[in-house]
Amino acid sequence: MTEDLSPAERYQASRLRAAEQATALGPFRQMYDFGLDPYQIEACKALEAGKGVLVAAPTGSGKTIVGEFAVHLALEQGRKCFYTTPIKALSNQKFADLVRRYGPDKVGLLTGDNSVNADAPVVVMTTEVLRNMLYAGSQALNGLGYVVMDEVHYLSDRFRGAVWEEVIIHLPASVTLVSLSATVSNAEEFGDWLDTVRGDTEVIVSEQRPVPLWQHVLAGRRMYDLFEEESDHGGRGVGRREVNPDLVRLARMENQRGYNPRERRRGKMVREADRERERRQRSRIWTPSRPEVIDRLDAEGLLPAITFIFSRAACEAAVQQCLHAGLRLNDEDKRRLVREIVEERTATIPPEDLHVLGYYEWLEGLERGIAAHHAGMLPRFKEIVEELFVRGLVKAVFATETLALGINMPARSVVLEKLVKWNGEQHADITPGEYTQLTGRAGRRGIDVEGHAVVLWQRGMDPGALAGLAGTRTYPLRSSFRPSYNMAVNLVEQFGRHRSRELLETSFAQFQADRSVVGISRQVQRNEEGLEGYREGMTCHLGDFEEYARLRRDLKDRETELAKQGASQRRAAAAASLEKLKPGDVIHVPTGKFAGLALVLDPGLPAGRTNGHGHRGMEYHDGPRPLVLTAERQVKRLASIDFPVPVEAVERMRVPKSFNPRSPQSRRDLASALRSKAGHIVPDRHRRGRAPAADDREIARLRSELRAHPCHGCDEREDHARWAERFHRLQRDTRQLERRIEGRTNTIARTFDRIVALLTELDYLRGSEVTEHGRRLARLYGELDLLASECLRAGVWEGLNPAELAACVSALVYEARQADDAVAPKLPSGPARTALGEMVRIWGRLDALEEDFKINQAEGVGQREPDLGFAWSVYMWASGRPLDEVLREADMPAGDFVRWCKQVIDVLGQVAAAAPRENSTVARNARKAVDEVLRGVVAYSSLG
Q1: Confidence of residue 792 (pLDDT cuts 50, 70, 90)
Q2: Given CB 3.0 to 4.6 Å as the disulfide criterion, which of 231, 288, 441, 653 pairs with 292?
Q3: What does the longest C-alpha to C-alpha distance in the chain come to?
Q4: Cα-based distances in Å from 582 to 73, 684, 775
Q5: Where are the alpha helices (DSSP H) in 391-537?
């Protein structure tokens, strides 16, 4: 290459190389056996120039090189570097990487589970650990020069995102911040905020994937390219991409499977022709089975592959389907190597536990090169799957979407079974951001020439919509920052109340809210111009049409109000009838999904008490919610919506004491008895009385005034009325926009003020002084920080043994994946049960107090109801019961059990640190509880 340069150009190039060698970047580049990308070089140069950087680039593009350069600079300058990650798995992986490069003496690790060489100049940690250090004023912050925040886009996470903003705001000004993010569409906005709170920050955005990505759809036996002309390759080019016309034809053909009106023939010939056409179409279009997909990818040389399935159970089922189909992706030598690695990694797990954990079925899949990967798996098992996949010994992984946010585990291909997933409330289409995140795993840098994203054909698929998903780069970063009780006392302790309020107003959440106000203000101005035009349109020569329109609206509003009152009275009558129900009453449910004959098992809780879901807004303000057995053998808790009219018992029957609502046989027997006893009874029909509007004086007055108004006789009255209605709607919308502007100004600070007022009421704060109770709260992190503090304050946990204390603490962290209000959770007896009941009572008091102070859980602030669903499981485990018995009782996968135990251990540690030192057993028993929970499967799972 240099031979083509002139002598002057060669001299200039040599001078540039010499100049680079004099910088820190030159020696750093020589540490890698590959060249750095332009965006990496740009970011490293900005860092060396003393600037902070925000690097936004696709998954697998090598963003962490910039973070490693910050480590290099810190070591060269004799300063410290903290490398933070969102999850312990990433921390462990980055710790291992840095130890290999710099040696164990220079690198430490701090997570909730592990503390290794914490005084080293380079420490890898989870973001929460650094947040806690900042609030505690830790000595470890002395000499800190650089902080790397890997996966900084996690600040969008509604549960943990606030921690990232807390760290960014509170880091000393002398610390240079390196923020590494996935590709986001508002990187410049985030960079502007970083520039505001951290000083000079360079924003470097790279849209280019390191490995081109090809998009496909697998339908039947054929793999179709999604785009006709793959000139873009997921970000390399700028060519226009058109949807493959073959796919469009395929979708059209599938939609034309019905009757064709042009065919006039009748009888058997037509039916045979239809069936033949259907057979031909089916032979071309179907969704391949999971073993067929893996077999096809293997034949095309597209393994290793990750298949994303949005269900843990389906991931496990996929592995079993491949095993039953006889798939073998490893030869005998690789099978032997897999067995050796797995046996070495699981040597510390007792044989009796291996059996409980499904080890042998799991090992069989690994030996064949097939595995599942999801949060329900034992962490040690997940680690092994990851290691084997990276080493090419597992070639097909069926994973939930959590893998896309986790550790470095790229593949040659990514398969998406469906483009719909359950979001906790409903089945929803995946977003362009989620699609980009999932397919970003395809293509291994330095190994693959190209990556492949394969979507399986599903009935009703729209290729155009899929192309929109694949071609959209929309993944905006949205702040989830909200003040918490713990945050409030820590801020007031360090900065005082006034300065704390100012600090919170510098959050990214407030920054985004303030920016959004600019667009709303412009809309208000446009609306006001529109109102003037509408006002002209409704002008009437006979009188004031605005006044006439107001009368019409008042009349309509009064009629609507009376209709609502009638409905409210009917609901009240229905609620009163529900309160009279007793166990054993046979009723007819008048409407809803469970309409028909039903037997009352439990009439529900009294008015004013909350239900088992633990969400505010679901109080029994309109009467009980009876638990019933339907004639179709279903046990369901009904709501007031199921009873629009009063209900009364049509018969009574005995509910056996042995009845178990979870037993299908028990439900079947009792439902059969119900049908025999009352199946012949026909319910009375409820008749409605005279409408209230018919006799209302206000309605009569408004109608009279309307008829007497001058505009009532106008020939163009209805035309004017249409303009008046448009004027009214636009005026209402404008007022709403004005209220939004008012609501978005200083929103974070106003929430902080309400939290401070509540904490002052409870004597955690006195002005800008933090009381003894407040200092205890400052050491308790988590969603139920205030509840934990109040339990310590009230001595609720005094006298509990370690297992009982662990059971109580579990209620602070556990949240069931799906609410089950049919059966109360099993609880330990004795003092633990009493303490758990007291915790729920204290929460009820706090919940009422939050309502008084307008602290709303819907806005992400406040204390949810403690969930007692894990108390019995962790009590058994801490009491020394064997794993098989505990998992059987817990009815949850081993991975979930371990994860909840780890969270219980974390909070037990906080409780031990926050509990009173004198005249208290809590601190000592909390430490003992940690030891008793941290055993067996929990102790030997190295990731949390």
Answers
A1: very high
A2: 288
A3: 106
A4: 74, 20, 49
A5: 432-439, 463-471, 485-504, 508-537
Lowest mean pLDDT among 161-170, 174-183, 619-628, 710-719: 619-628
Which tokens hold the place of 705? 């005034």
Q: Which two tokens stand for residue 653?
A: 């029957």
Q: Looking up tokens 């009063």, which residue turns up?
A: 646
Q: 380, exposed or middle or buried, with CB in 10 Å at 0-12, 13-18, 19+?
A: buried
CA–CA gap between residue 631 and residue 783 (Å, rounded) = 41
DSSP letters, 784-853, are THHHHHHHHHHTTTTT--HHHHHHHHHHHH---SS---SSPPP---THHHHHHHHHHHHHHHHHHHHHHT
Residue 264 makes CB contacts below 8 A (sequence gap 6+) with: none
Backbone angles phi, psi at 131, to 5 degrees: -60, -45
- Sorting pLDDT into bands at 50, 70 and 90, what band is 508? confident
Rounded CA-CA distance 381/390 in Å is 14
843: left (phi over 0), alpha (psi -120 to 50) or beta: alpha
- Let me know: does 177 contact 51? Beta carbons within 8 Å: no
Question: Mean pLDDT throughout 292-310?
Answer: 90
Are the CB atoms for 180 and 63 separated by under 8 Å? yes
pLDDT attached to residue 366:
93
Phi, psi of 44 (to 5 degrees): -65, -40
Q: Are strands 305-308 and 413-416 parallel, antiparallel or unpaired?
A: parallel
**Is residue 687 very low, low, confident or very high in pLDDT (cuts 50, 70, 90)?**
low
Residue 396: helix, strand or coil by DSSP?
Answer: strand
Tell me the pTM.
0.69
Residue whose structure tokens are 């995140």? 437
Cα–Cα distance for residue pair 934/115, rounded to 1 Å: 15
* Residue 533, SS3 per DSSP: helix
Helix (H) or strand (E) holding 179: strand 176-181
User: Angle, to 10 degrees, between the axis of helix 245-255 and the axis of helix 463-471?
Assistant: 140
Residue 738 has phi, psi (to 5 degrees) of: -65, -40
Of 104-108, 279-283, 373-377, minimum mean pLDDT range = 279-283
Q: How far apart are CA 210 and CA 212, in angstroms?
A: 7
**In angstroms, what CA-CA distances link 282 with 246, 277, 459?**
16, 9, 11
User: Between the CA atoms of 601, 606, 612 and 615, what dihedral angle is there, to the nearest 10 degrees?
Assistant: 150
Q: State the DSSP string of 575-625.
A: HHHHHT--TTEEEEE-SSTT-EEEEEEE--PPTT-B-TT--TT-B-TT---
pLDDT digits (tens, 9 = 90+) for 199-236: 889 999 888 877 888 889 888 888 888 887 644 444 44
Residue type, 420: V
Q: Residues 6 or more apart from 688 whose CB is under 8 A from it?
A: none
Cβ-Cβ contacts under 8 Å for 744 (sequence gap 6 or more): 513, 514, 516, 517, 520
Nearest to 488, CA basis, from 290, 683, 771, 114: 771
Give the Å distances, CA to CA, from 159 to 60, 87, 155, 607, 857: 26, 13, 9, 31, 12
